[in-house]
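Backbone Fold Data
Goal — fold tokens
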Amino acid sequence: MEIRRIRVISPLKHVSEARPTPALRILAISDMEIKDSPALHRIDAELSCGNYHLVVSCGDVHAGIIEHIATTVPVIGVRGNHDSPQLPAGMRDLHCRMITYNGVKFGGFQGAWKYKPTGHFLYENDEVERYLSRFPGLDVFVAHNPMSGIHDVNDGVHNGFEAFRNYCMRTQPGLFLHGHSGIQGETALGSTIVMGINGVKGIEIELV
């Protein structure tokens, strides 16, 4: 299968529409570090209305939220720089590995720019470059940190990885998802759609 089209969806509006081609609906989440009632209510509302097949975490999501979601919907993702070293129960780790779901190839890279000497999941650009130098092409690449030049903030903390940009230029995944920078937006890089996630976003991937 190949990705034909990717679009952001509003589940309440689009859930009942008939589709001429198979579609994979994913709910992307990121940077929800506090497990509170509004966050859980928002996610539950999305999941109940959106007919989602899969939830994808871009990191810095409270483990309790992940574990809550995983009781009803499969969860895959990466961890962010504020996450615990322990993988949340119910989430399959995408860091430097590939998982195929309904014919779509997902993979990713955890953590963030090394903005302090010590901490969980902090990397220099050269380290990321080495990890990704032989990483295979994917349909969807999931990261916590943004790539350089797109949705990044050059403040010493939310800087983008040039290694991510190089990987996408080399392999052209259909979709690159990230969090961390607080930017919710979409930008094209060649044939790759780069989406920043800040909170939740419904995405539909049409396949051929």
Remarks:
- The radius of gyration is 16 Å.
